[in-house]
Amino acid sequence: MSPDFDADLLKTFIAAAELGSFTKAAQVVFRSQAAVSMQIKRLESIVGKPLFVRDTRNLSLTHTGEALLEYARRIRSLQDEAWAAVARPEISGHVVLGGPDDYISSLLPPVLRRFSVMYPAVEITVICAQSTALAPMLADNRIDLAFVTRDRSLRLDGDFIRREPMLWVGKPDEPRLWLARPLPVALYEPGCMARANTVAALDRAGLPYRATYSSASMLGVLTAVDAGLAVSALARCSIPDRLSVIAGRHGLPEIEPLDIVVARSAKSNRPTCDYLAAQMQEDLSRPMEGVLTVQR
User: Fold this and answer.
1) Does residue 146 contact residue 134 with C-beta atoms inside 8 Å?
2) 2 vs 31, 33, 47, 185, CA distance in Å?
3) Do 192 and 52 fall into the same domain?
4) Alpha-carbon distance 65 to 14, whole Å?
5) 73 domain-assigned
6) Residue at 118 is within a domain
7) A single Gene Ontology molecular function, please (predicted)?
8) CATH code at 155?
9) What is the DSSP letter of 56?
10) Within a domain: residue 36?
11) Domain range holding 64?
12) Same domain, 245 and 214
């Protein structure tokens, strides 16, 4: 008898294979890292062979894993195509979606991929910008949807999607930075919630710091961290595996998490926007099983 490949197992396997990390896969499928490991072990027991080669820093596929990945992608794609063929409403049009680069790159690719399969006649334009730039664009109806951190001071509010912890990160071979006082910190630009929450946490803790670098994009912040010139605090979903994540050590304070919402413009009351917002809600807002703690 042929094995029964459960859809949830395949979804977790694809996420782990594509992201190269059980930690990041856990964020995408909304389970704890332990639950992801158990799902992979269950799938390996069904196949009867290991699917991943594991070591302390890397996660790669075995030959069996590579073969299964192609079939898993085809199965998932066929499921979406089947729904699109028999159940989806016929809609077409254009949606302009805005969001910061870290949310766009880390959370939205699987959402947009599924949406494009189910609604192929909808054209999506994605604009990467910080919340301070997206707020006036939303008010002026230059964008339809904004996938952003809730910030009522900027009048950015909407349907709640998920809460993202903020964690301290740094270059692995630069531990001296964690202990430096004042602490060298790379921050986002003034006016954004990530910066405000980070600075507020440092001030509450009475920890001396200096804002060594400031950037409007995650790439700019990561450049300073990768160069070993500063530490930073990032949303958990956007932390690259190459960085060390410190939780509750070296005297670094806990930071308030970020609430991610989908905000809508006054002219977004149309089916194309409704269905994309609903897809984001469905794919990204399911509660996590247990607490995912990252320490590398």
Assistant:
1) yes
2) 28, 29, 10, 55
3) no
4) 10
5) yes
6) yes
7) DNA-binding transcription factor activity
8) 3.40.190.10
9) S
10) yes
11) 7-86
12) yes
**Could you give the CA distance from residue 41 to residue 142 in angstroms, rounded to a whole number?**
47
Residue type at position 295:
Q
Work out how many domains the chain is built from and give that number.
Answer: 3
In this structure, the answer to whether residues 67 and 27 fall within a common structural domain is yes
157, 172: one domain: no
Distance between CA 175 and CA 220 in Å, rounded? 21
CA distances 280 to 33, 91, 116, 162, 263, Å, are: 22, 17, 13, 10, 12
Q: Is it the case that residue 290 has pLDDT exceeding 60?
A: no
* 196/103 Cα distance (integer angstroms): 18
Report, as an integer, the average pLDDT of 93-122: 91
Pairing of strands 145-149, 258-264: antiparallel
Q: Is the pLDDT of residue 288 over 50?
A: no
Mean pLDDT for the chain overall: 87
Question: Two tokens at 196?
Answer: 């405000």
Angle at 32 between CA 34 and CA 57, to 5 degrees: 60
Residues 252 and 189 in one domain: yes
pLDDT in tens, 158-183: 999 998 999 999 998 777 888 899 99
Q: Are residues 150 and 269 located together in one domain of the fold?
A: yes
Cα dihedral 146, 148, 154, 155 in deg (nearest 10):
60
**Cα→Cα distances 204→198, 199, 250, Å:** 10, 9, 16
Q: Are 151 and 193 in contact (CB under 8 A)?
A: yes
The answer to whether position 191 is within a domain reads yes
Q: What 3-state DSSP class applies to 292?
A: coil
**Cα-based distances in Å from 32 to 1, 49, 65, 221, 254:** 32, 24, 22, 27, 20
71 & 115 share domain: no
- Please report, in angstroms and rounded to a whole number, the separation of the first and last CA atoms in the chain: 42
